[in-house]
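Hi there. Long-time user, first ticket. I'm pasting a complex I've been working with (about 670 residues overall). I'd like to know whether the download I got is complete or cut off, because the file seemed smaller than I expected. Thanks.
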Amino acid sequence: MRVPQARDVATPDTGVVSASRLALLLLLAPALLWLAGLVVLPHVELAVLSLRARVAPREYEYSVKQYLTFFEEPLYWHTFVRTAVMSIVATACTLALAFPAAWFIAKVARTRLQSLLLVLCLIPFWVSETVRTLGWMILLRESGVVPRILTDLGLTSAPPELLYHDATILVGLVYTSMLFMVVPLVNALQTLDDSLIEAAYNLGGTGWNILRRIVIPHAAPGIAAGAIVVFMLTLGNYLTPTLLGGKNSLWFTEQIYTQFITRFNWEQGAAFGFLLLVLSTLIVWVGLAATGQRFGDVMRRS
Amino acid sequence: MSNDLEVDHVSKRFGAHAAVAELTFDVKRGSFFSILGPSGCGKTTLLRMIAGFIAPDTGEIRIGGKSMTGIAPNRRPVNMVFQHLALFPMMTVGENVGYGLTQRGQARSDIRTRVTGMLERVGLPGAQDKRIEQLSGGQKQRVAIARSLVLEPTLLLLDEPLGALDLKLREHMKIELKQLQADFGTTFVYITHDQSEALVLSDTVAVMNAGRFEQIGSPQQLYYEPRTPFVAGFVGASNRFAGKVEGIDAGVVQVRTRDGLSVRARAQDGLAAGDTAEVFVRPEMTVVARSAETAGLGTLAQHFAGRVTSLLFDGANSSVLVREDTSGAEVRMALPQTGQLADLAVGAAVAFGFAPERALAFKSARAS
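Hi, the file is complete. Here it is re-exported in full:
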């Protein structure tokens, strides 16, 4: 009888490997098709669009004119910066409001109350975003519920217009984003061992210090994940700023919409779309770098 | 003031359940005090009250002579080593050990010197910059102790810190803990359900059951002179026979079990003829031999005949299960370490016995 050679053993092995690799490929296929078809392809097309200028009907040439327009026209980059700042503020407000709520759900509430509270966070999403935002308008417009209550209470002489302010936009954005911050925070806080907090307290730690040195470092990946999702959603939101902010909203997605739909200037719209992508990537990267975290860790641990 | 901890009529109820019932005891300065009890006996509640995480319903806890009523955990001169150690994974070893000192607002250079010194004393020199997950189980243990002792507490509380370790490391850490305590001279209050830990480590052990202390004493007292049936059954291994007292003579009772086995044992206070009694005999207090004529056994005041049903070989702790011929009662007995019965087989006929003064009879709390 022949002693089996290494190659004899290896052949069926590679067969197994390639079969499992094929299975993996098949499992990944829908996701890959999705990514290629709906994310990569349109963006390639957008990139091409944004880098051409029309010289004559049906005649185009390579140009960076669209990008130059953005920097030359103050309204555009003003809107751009304003959108970024407002989104950061909205993300910060959402975090500040969601953290105590998530703490309560993860650490104080018992199991049954816990799931009830999470469902409560989800309930606003049963209503479409448009209807939800219109609900805010019904509450806040001059002849709406809140201004009338304020006048009836004698706090103001005439019903105030509460719509079309930056604060109103922020309220709407924070309201829409809460769930996306609460869920990763609850996950992060649930994995925090209570005995760590007790140990810190036992070693002389005070409430604020324990929050800063134990709780926040532990929850950091959850905070980052929530902040990234909320920031992206807010930056790319169209409906809420437009409806609640009216003409004053000056949201960058509106500029993109105007270019594509109103002006039919697809090249300019594509350039704006790309700038928004660069902006969100840049801010997320800066945020992660500033807090010393890695994107992979954040996405894995939340 | 020679007591570091005084617990004065402390009670704690959770609903209808009394977790700790009217406890009063003192712990001497510099001693190693263990509270030994089965899970659910209230020892963790007691420890958490001393640490300040739970407030007692009644009574007072004094540490170093000062009342702790209304004082928050972070203001008590007490530190605790948690069951799962609760080291901060987001900090280095040095930051863990220095955490308490930072909270006290000490100078950075001062903290660094003291952390370095403390890590050297617990046998981890130069480990400051290591991450917690790089440490072995025993090293984590030492960091947890160092983190507490660096604050020079009046009292160090330890909540079953060896429970998560494997057997070999646990044996090793027992010795290390005892040496550390002797070295630092800090008063240790240690809770455990493992009687061997309590016996090996402590100067004084309190055996706790259902919210009360059954007995406080040195390990030797608990082992040789248990005062309640619970202590006799919980500390060390014991054979237990329950039966009726048939007679009492000069402190020795005759107890007959329901199976008909009649044994004589040293009576504890208050036993009278007709009482239900529990008799405890430790396996190592018995003598086994091939026949009653064998030297040593004949001199014993009582002996029985039986057959081996099981051999439990465990090196120095080997024992044998023997079924008594007439009553069918099963008795566990230690095998002599000289190896003279090493060839004993299941089914072999043996004689066994024990001196009545080596067995203890208690008035039974429950009917049997």
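A couple of notes from our side: Chain A touches chain B through 17 residues (CB under 8 Å). The radius of gyration of chain A is 26 Å.
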